[in-house]
Design brief:
The protein is mainly beta and about 350 residues long. It has a single domain (about 5-345), classed as Porin (Beta Barrel). The chain has helices at about 5-15, 75-80, 90, 195-200; strands at about 60-70, 95-110, 115-130, 135-155, 160-180, 205-220, 225-230, 235-240, 240-245, 245-255, 260-265, 270, 275-290, 295-305, 310-320, 325-330, 340-345. The strands form 2 sheets. The protein has a 14-stranded antiparallel beta barrel with strand order 1-2-3-4-5-6-7-10-11-13-14-15-16-17. Strands 8-9 form a two-stranded antiparallel sheet. The longest helix is centred in the first third of the chain and has 15 residues, at about 5-15.
């Protein structure tokens, strides 16, 4: 078997067998959604492993993320349901969620330290298939975040890297609750769930969250790394969402001189904003160096919210020089595909 088919088979098999885990917003085009990794991140993303902060070259990083994530067939089923077709309700119960994300980020890295300001905006909908009174829960959530963290090898030549990250977050949330009007002909939700929920702009509630994250990476052998992360080590209630610690583990393998394979999985299921239900996701990714200045990252991610899941694939093109990084990422999906761009200068 030639190397390229072997690598493709490894990624496909790994994506099928990984247990689900939750996926964070891929700020700085640095995460599983675009072929990267949370456990073995490149050191820019404040929501990834702080032990990897020492991997990021010194510089100023700018980030933008935009796009949708949905349960399989959610868009078509939601359109039919809000159009008055009650027969779609049982199917919508198997595809009950949609999430629209927009995020901006600015980070500064130097000598393993990461200082960042980020903003994430979420519009979401979650269908509750109650047999008597089914309903749609729409939410607008916005978080402004300051993070200060540091990580890297304890000493020169060390095979273990460790890191911590402190996040101070100001959350805003607004809710749109839409009960089903009837189960007969012409039944519909009040208004349009698509426009009212995934395009909502208002928020009415405010709250603060203080979170502590930690992580470590151990070089087991040459070209073989084990990584672990723990985020939101301090539990916190944000309205009806109970934020608890989530633990994640991953394995990374060097495949020759130019490729790296990363596999990772959460070890538990937790609630995360803006959904008041438990979430998980799984990911497998491959980084392939085209040259000293260019690399392609490809990956697959399986995301599960409550009992509904979806599998998506993504890719990123990176261009690096001694003073510049440009990364452009794209993830296929329903409605508005997720996309991201990162620029670093030093």
């Amino acid at each position: 078997m030639t190397p390229k088919p072997l690598l493709a088979r490894i990624v496909l098999v790994a994506s099928a067998v990984c247990a689900p885990l939750w996926a964070q917003t891929p700020l700085f085009t640095d995460g599983p959604a675009f072929g990267g990794s949370k456990v073995f991140s490149e050191g820019m993303n404040p929501l990834a492993n702080p032990a990897r902060f020492g991997q990021a070259p010194t510089g100023y990083y700018f980030s933008f993320v935009d796009g949708d994530q949905r349960a399989q067939d959610n868009k078509s089923l939601l359109s039919a349901t809000t159009g008055g077709d009650p027969t779609t309700l049982p199917a919508l119960a198997n595809a009950p969620w949609a999430l629209r994300t927009r995020a901006y980020g600015l980070a500064s890295t130097k000598n393993g330290a990461n200082l960042g300001l980020t903003r994430e905006e979420f519009n979401s909908m979650l269908f509750t298939p109650d047999p008597v009174a089914p309903s749609m829960d729409g939410r607008r959530a916005v978080v402004d975040r300051l993070n200060v963290g540091g990580g890297g090898p304890a000493q020169q030549g060390s095979t273990t890297a460790m890191g911590v990250n402190l996040r101070v977050e100001r959350w805003e949330m607004g809710e749109i609750f839409q009960p089903y009007t009837s189960a007969g002909p012409g039944a519909s939700f009040f208004g349009s769930a698509e426009s009212d929920m995934l395009n909502a702009t208002g928020t009415s509630n405010r709250s603060w969250n203080l979170a502590l994250d930690a992580g470590a990476v151990l070089e087991l052998a040459q070209g073989v790394r084990l990584g672990v992360t723990a985020d939101q080590l301090n539990s916190k209630h944000l309205w009806d969402v109970y934020l608890q610690p989530q633990f994640r583990a991953g394995l990374q393998l060097d495949l020759g001189q130019i490729a790296k394979l990363s596999l990772e999985s959460d070890l538990n299921s937790v609630e995360r904003m803006p959904f008041p239900v438990k979430q998980q996701a799984s990911a497998a990714s491959l980084r392939f160096g085209l040259s000293s200045a260019a690399a392609i990252l490809v990956g697959v991610e399986r995301r599960k919210i409550d009992d509904a899941s979806v599998t998506r694939g993504g890719a990123t093109l990176q261009i690096r020089t001694s003073s510049l990084l440009l990364a452009i990422g794209f993830q296929a999906g329903q409605d508005r595909p997720m996309k991201s761009a990162t620029l670093m200068v030093n």
